[in-house]
Amino acid sequence: RSQKVSILPVGLVGGVLAEKPIVKDGQVIGFEVGWGPDRKFATDMAGFAVNLEYFKLNKEVEFPTAVRLGMLETDFLSGLIKVTDLEPVSIGRILVWHTRTEKPELKLEEKFVRIYGRASNAGLV
After folding, report:
1. Which residues of 4-23 are buried (b: 16+ CB within 10 A; e: fewer)?
2. Active-site residue, selected from the candidate residues 19, 32, 53, 73
């Protein structure tokens, strides 16, 4: 159960097989993503869960209606929490898939492999 905001890996998103938080000693220290690695919260909308009671305590936080491309998650989460306070769950296992009724475009997977030296889904089941 999320106390505040949980973060988890997502499959078939951002042009790669999987995007996930980088976790060290139980704390999120960054993100492994195919698209927009410079975003403060480099995750897909499917990659986090917000505790409703915690959300209601933050009355000033609103879901942004006008944002730069790819920044919706960062703009929303920035008002709720710091990256280091995210609660990592399901690390090492994909429970959420960003699926469509078409073949996924994995155009950034090769770039991911060049940057990280392994496939984006390495270590995930």
Report:
1. bbbbbbbbbbbbbbbbbbeb
2. 73
